[in-house]
Amino acid sequence: MNQNDFTDKASGRLVHSPHGFLAFVPHALPPTLEFDVGLALALSKADAALSELSGLGSQLPNPHLLIAPYSRREAVLSSRIEGTKASLSDLLIDEIEDIRAKPENRDDILEVRNYVRALEYGMRRMADLPLSLRLIREIHAELMTGVRGDRATPGEFRRSQNWIGPAGSTPATAAFVPPPVDEMTACLGEWETFLHVRDVLPDLIQCALMHVQFETIHPFLDGNGRIGRLLITFFLMERQRLAQPLLYLSAFIDAHKSDYYDLLQRVRTHGDWGAWLRYFLQGVTETATAAGQQARELHRLREHYRAQLRDKPNALALVDELFVNPYMTIGRAAQVLEKTHPTAKAAITVLEQNRIVRELSGRQWGRFYVCAPILEAIDKPLA
Asked: Are the beta carbons of 91 and 73 closer than 8 angstroms?
């Protein structure tokens, strides 16, 4: 790190490590914030969009049908920020048991699947355990075990120095060096205390501060970015700002990645919390608005398909499964219906005739089908 990059308004202090390089130790949260008109307006818009999405999630007759596709899209996008190449279709097809993933992207798909597993595990555990360092370690173990980063001590905070920079960089040449281990432990304790502060800051402001501080502490050897993005959703769920886990910021961050990293660094070097908060609140506004539009479109499609198939019980029984995963095989249909393969094939034929699914493989055996309108609604890019 360049010492000259850090101004007297930096959000922490520089320390010399035992090995001679500089590292950054953030001050405890919260910082002193200036709530100008622009920030107040951004907060108002984000709060309104989040409340509307939360209300929609509680009003939909089957909100659980949205949770699976939303979580999988988030897994793909959050993992893509870290360099994986797997698409949403790759992940969804891999989940169909009789379709094998291509060997060349198998590692990427496993990482994305671990993200889904970590998200679902965290949501279950939050019923019994508050958002805490213990929970975060458990989620990290789910995320990192059995994949390329599993050598980076899954479920354990780091015991050695890490750094952020291009391939080949060292702590002396890196763009950013998080706190040394001893300082990191103290920072994590302060961060956990801040997690439990109530009625001092607006929830979205506290969430934005929490995220920056976690990324600055960088407590794991690998997986910090993905855990930090998961924490946004977990925090808002714990604060009961979301009725269902339907808000994920990875789509916004992926679309504005350079701004994201620049603003995190400006918080550290210049204490520029205002610019970061406006970015974060804009992300909440855009993402919540888009998620609401997606939810309404998916609900509309479901009602349309159910009306089409009201006198076709077997085909109708497959509709909700298409919202969980828009890809279908005869084997999967047989499992869902608990019927024979000929009966399952007949039900899929009804879906084809009603132009709800189309066959993709062109083969006589091992055929698989997709409901393109559902997939497009789920995978629609953030406008």
From this structure: no
288-302 pLDDT, tens digit per residue, is 999 999 888 998 999
- pLDDT the model gives residue 101: 47
**pLDDT score of 103:** 53
Residue 97, burial from CB neighbour count under 10 angstroms (0-12, 13-18, 19+) = exposed
Report residue 89 as tokens: 């279709």
Amino acid at 87: S
What is this structure's pTM? 0.93
User: Can you list the alpha helix ranges (DSSP code H) found in the chain?
Assistant: 37-59, 64-81, 88-94, 106-125, 133-144, 181-195, 203-217, 224-238, 250-255, 257-270, 273-308, 313-324, 330-337, 341-353, 372-378
Tell me which H or E stretch contains 16.
strand 12-16
- Give the whole-number percent of the chain exceeding pLDDT 90: 78
In order of start, what are the domains of the chain with their CATH numbers?
3-26+36-294 (1.10.3290.10), 311-378 (1.10.10.10)
Predicted confidence (pLDDT) at residue 98 exceeds the cutoff of 50: no
Question: What number of other Cβ atoms are within 10 A of residue 338's Cβ?
Answer: 9
